[in-house]
Amino acid sequence: MISFLYSIDVAVFRWINEAWSCPFLDKFFSFITQFHHFEWPVLLWALYLLIWGKAKGRWLVLTVVITVLLTDQISSHVIKYLVERVRPCNALPGVLTPAGASSAFSFPSSHAANMGGSMLVLSRAFPAFAWLFMLIALLVGLSRVYLGLHYPSDVLSGYVLGIVIGWGVLKIITSRFKTANSSFTTKAPRHQERHLFSLNFKSFISSVFLVPSRLGGEKGFKMTDKRVQSNVVKSKPDLGKARGRKKRR
C-alpha cells in the first residue's frame, strides 16, 4: 500500500516537474517561491496594520506572526528530523531544478505549512478575499513541486499542518481576548468587506507615499484634498451676520 501511494506521488511529481517545464514557469515559480522578493510589501503592510489598523490590525499581525513561527519551527526543526525524507531532487534521477537543489529534508514542506497557516488567518480576517489568499498558497505550493524540491505529498502535508496550527492559534486568541474575538468573528455583509479592504489598501498607499511629504513642513499640507478644505470653509459661521442679528434684538 505504501509503495503504491509512493508511486502515485512520484508520478504526479514527474508530471509537474517535467511535463510543465518551460522557461516562463522556470522564472515565475523561482520568483514566487522566495519570500525575500515580497518581504518589503509584507513588512510595510504589517507596519500599517500595527499603526493604523486599530484593534483588528494589531490582533491580525500578532496571529499571523505566532502562526508562522509555529508552522516554520515545527515543520523545519521537528517533523523533518523525525521523518528524514530525502528530497526528490536528491532521491530521483533526472529531476529538473531551475532554482537549484537543497540538501535539507523534504517532509513536510515548510513553505506550504507557512502559507497554509497564514493564508487561513488572512482568509478569516477578510472572507471576501479568501480566494486570493488560497490562490497565493496554491501557487507557492506548486512552485515547490515544479522546482523539484518537494513531492506533492510534502506540500499537502504542509498545508494540513499549517491549517491545523493556524486554526488552533486563531481559536485560542479569539476565545481568550474579547477584542480579537469581536475583530475576527464579527461578520459584515460581503460588499462592506470589499469596501473596507479597499479603504485599507488606499489608506496604506497614501500613508506610504504621503507621510514623507507631511514631514517636510508646510509643503506636505498643500496636498490636502480641496473638497475637504471647501467643506471646512463652508462650515465656518458668519460672525458678521450673527453680530448684526444680536444688535437688532
Q: What assembly state would you assign to the polypeptide chains in this entry?
A: single chain
CATH fold type of the largest domain = Vanadium-containing Chloroperoxidase, domain 1
Strand percent estimate: under 5%
**N-to-C terminal Cα separation, in Å?**
100 Å
Instruction: Give the structural class.
Output: mainly alpha
Number of strands: 0
CATH class of the largest domain: Mainly Alpha
Rg computed from alpha carbons, rounded to a whole number of angstroms: 26 Å
The CATH homology group name of the largest domain? Phosphatidic acid phosphatase type 2/haloperoxidase
Output the keywords.
249 residues; mainly alpha; Vanadium-containing Chloroperoxidase, domain 1
Report a brief summary of the structure.
The chain is mainly alpha-helical. It is 77% helix and 0% strand.
Please explain how this structure is put together:
With 249 residues, the chain is an all-alpha fold. The chain has 2 domains: 2-185, Phosphatidic acid phosphatase type 2/haloperoxidase (Vanadium-containing Chloroperoxidase, domain 1, Up-down Bundle), CATH 1.20.144; 190-248, no CATH class. It contains 13 helices and no strands. The protein has helices spanning 2-19, 23-32, 39-52, 54-83, 88-91, 110-125, 130-146, 152-176, 178-185, 190-214, 218-221, 226-235, 239-248. The chain starts with a helix and ends with a helix.
